[in-house]
Protein: Aldehyde dehydrogenase family protein
Amino acid sequence: MTTFAVTEPLTGRTLREYPTATDEEIREVLARADATHRTWGRGTAAAERCARLARVAELYEERAADLARIIAVEMGKPVAEGREEVALVADIYRYYAEYAPAFLRDEPLGHAAGGDAVVRKEPLGVLLGIMPWNYPYYQVARFAAPNLAAGNTLLLKHAPQCPESALAMAQIFRDAGLPDGAYVNVFATNAQVADVIADPRVQGVSLTGSERAGAAVAEIAGRHLKKVVLELGGSDAFVLLDTDDLDATVALAAAGRLYNAGQSCNAPKRFLVMDHLYEEFVARFAAAVGGIRPGDPQAPATELGPLSSGAAAATLREQVAGAVAQGAEVVAGDLVPDGACMAPVVLTGVEPGMDVYRQELFGPVSVVYRVCSDEEAVRVANDSPYGLGASVHSRDLGRALRVAEQLEVGMVYVNGVDASAPELPFGGVKRSGFGRELGRYGIEEFVNRKLIHVRP
Structure:
């Protein structure tokens, strides 16, 4: 039987296994979620739903230490970063607890077509969330907080390597007083997921994961005319036009690249540096990241944890080795096998014909490009199948904004990287997916915007 398992990345030891649900159990939770949405979504006021979410936020804060420890063991996130993730998650639930009632109010359209009109935002019903391992709590919060506030009920299929964080979240919702069936964790197989998507009681699907997984889910959902939100891969560009403090810029670049061991879809992965800064940036950046070594994620002082698995590290090493074989140069780091641990690597000399030029590098590997004009920076940044995010760095705000406006991405940060916050919408274009999470836009993805027109 397929299992969800806790396999410690640092040691490779499988500590505990959890069996997948039976088909009968899947049918039962579907029925429960469908029944609950009629009372949770239709019969419970938004203010009451949001009061439950406020309690969810409190419970995350109260259990932060345990929650951080769970994901340190499951996927190797350093405990300090785990606590930061939990704090952000609490902020997300608290944000929707406060603002969702206003977001969900009727939207008056005024006098139109001989009468008065409003748009009412109503819950759709049962939704399926398919979530990844790299931010076990945060990715779920982006999906769960707005949709529970809106009155939808949720089935949550988490990554197979994160069963205990999945169970911990389900317990938080129970302890916060959500009704049975409002949020249901399911240890489902891929075949069962396909059946759930096809079920007429399920109204939509949200997936955060790989491009391949997103394409598979979108295909199934499309056959059954189900709404889908996809947050997929990214190869974000960090565009450095100029700076009056190169050390600070390098520190920002290094921190952005190495957070969560580089396993973030929206981390800066490609560094596009103007010619007059290129040599010095490469030297300082290589020194900055090259001095960091992975360690035990449960040790409080650890800055860089292992990758999620030995297999993930092996895949990343193969990508780097392939780039070197095609002519790229390693200016920091090495490819010495060390289980799931991988020291940061910096590549230069990557050209458009190389495989790695168009790949996502999901780990602590950076590629630095020399560019000679703003136009070239825009061209290289956009020459990617992905369009999640980017950042632009310059003392000249007007120049930075002109470049930002030309980037084919869903999010641009000027003089910063990855400003994650509950109020900022998150999502991409191109092969990074579609739809938005967080902010007021996140609550509108899975609601029925019903027009009500009244003639006197």
Remarks:
- Residues 79-103 form the longest helix (25 residues).
- The longest strand covers residues 115-123.
- The domain at 236-414 is CATH 3.40.309.10 (Aldehyde Dehydrogenase; Chain A, domain 2).
